[in-house]
Amino acid sequence: MSTTGRRAHHQVTFAVLATGVIAFALLQSLVTPVLPTLEAALGTNQSDVTWVLTAYLLSASISTPVLGRLGDMRGKKRMFVLALSALALGCLIAALATDLTVMIIARVVQGIGGGVLPLAFGIIRDEFPREKVAGAVGAISALIAVGAGVGLVVAGPIVDALSYHWLFWLPLIVLVLAALAAQFLVPESPVRTAGSINWPAALLLSAWLVALLLALSQAPSWGWGSASVLGLLAAAVVLAVLWVVVESRSAQPLIDMRMMRVRAVWATNLVALLFGVAMYAAFAFLPQFLQTPSAAGYGFGSTVTASGLLMLPQTIASFLLGLVSGTLAQRIGSKLVLVIGTLVSAAGYLVFALAHDSQTEVLIGSTVMGAGFGLAFAAMSNLIVAAVEPSQTGVASGMNANIRTIGGSIGAAVMASVVTAGAGPTGVPPESGYTHGFLMLTGALVLAALAALLIPAVRRDPQTHAEPDVELRHPEAALVAGGTLVGDEPE
């Protein structure tokens, strides 16, 4: 129950959840366009300053499934407040940081806030009226892309008007208010999963994720064929296999391997991986492309602020399409919405690859890309929530977000290698590097659309056209979700 003795209205709960998710998403991208500023302010170099991003991704990758599981066991509201508090503490440390080491520590603490995503999805499923769940999950999911886009837009003006310290002071204020609101306004969810954290599995999960993301993030500077990168990748494979074995044999797994084998879950996670490859790479390299001086034969020599404004249509389109995604899914199904959203995003990337000589073309590509993001993010989350029982919502949705983060690390690392191939003595990438890079990302999204076709469809209620919570067309899915098997007739 809430501290007021009655359960808060679900719209109040949604407002608090949305605030926390937006703050987390902002902190994912806020530092990306101003890395050169941080490099100078912290007295470091281009290679080392990338750890400001890498440390955040590593921490979020490890913390997201753990907090999701803890939320299912100990209470989602309690863990949501903890995640917001970690984000706030990390912002405080980052705002006071004057050297790289302290900034990296701050970003690790902020990464713990990655748990806000699975916890928000779980609270929505537990607290909202059934007919409101799909729309709320869709809106929260769209806010992830919107928040990340807003971070790219507002970073420049904040640094220009104030300083890089305010990239963290402003979110800190919002996070403190959100944590207080969550404590006093959000009811504690009644759904609990018995058991305890499988710490050996958590350590193995952390180990293989660290090895994988460290190798991928450093491969452009160390070299893809270097002994360090190859050794880390081999270690990641071995540790991942051990993790799967430990989880499979555990009576209380951190990640239920039986759940992960459900076609609706693994196919949606594959889409998330490929989507992450494309999205994070674009967020990292589009500002760099726009800020390249036109003397290089491409780019517009934009300031940090101007390059952010050129990406504003992406943010607006993500938000608007995310709002209607839930309603659209009730009519045509989340699977079809996901396929459409992924192909729309691919079209936006194709525009960037083939037509980027004018700012109008960039605006068109950004708008189309954002529209696809809004549709696909919402649909992915709805498919995951519908595929598992309520007690596993946090872990399943957390792993989906986690896999998207891993995909982002892969995409950013590979994109860096493609873009910088053939760079001259000045270090400025050739235009062909960006063209090939965005074509590669277009291909990743086309593969994501094909992967989405593997997701089993769900039979909708003929009266409401809504998708049921857990009924899936796959025996394992029905077994795990405790749902009722339905036939394989076309929708």
UniProtKB/TrEMBL annotation:
Membrane-spanning parts: 12-31, 51-68, 80-98, 104-124, 136-158, 164-185, 197-216, 222-246, 266-286, 298-324, 336-356, 362-385, 406-428, 434-455
Q: Which InterPro entries does the record cross-reference, listed alphabetically? A: MFS, MFS_dom, MFS_trans_sf
Q: Where in the cell is it found?
A: Cell membrane
What is the organism of origin for this protein? Modestobacter italicus (strain DSM 44449 / CECT 9708 / BC 501)
Which keywords appear in this protein's UniProt record, sorted alphabetically? Cell membrane, Membrane, Transmembrane, Transmembrane helix, Transport
> Per the record, what is one GO cellular component?
plasma membrane
| Annotated protein name in UniProt | Multidrug resistance transporter, MFS superfamily protein
Q: What membrane topology was assigned to this protein in its record?
A: Multi-pass membrane protein
Entry GO MF terms: transmembrane transporter activity
The organism's lineage? Answer: Bacteria, Bacillati, Actinomycetota, Actinomycetes, Geodermatophilales
Limits of the Major facilitator superfamily (MFS) profile domain: 13-460
Q: Does the keyword Transmembrane apply?
A: yes
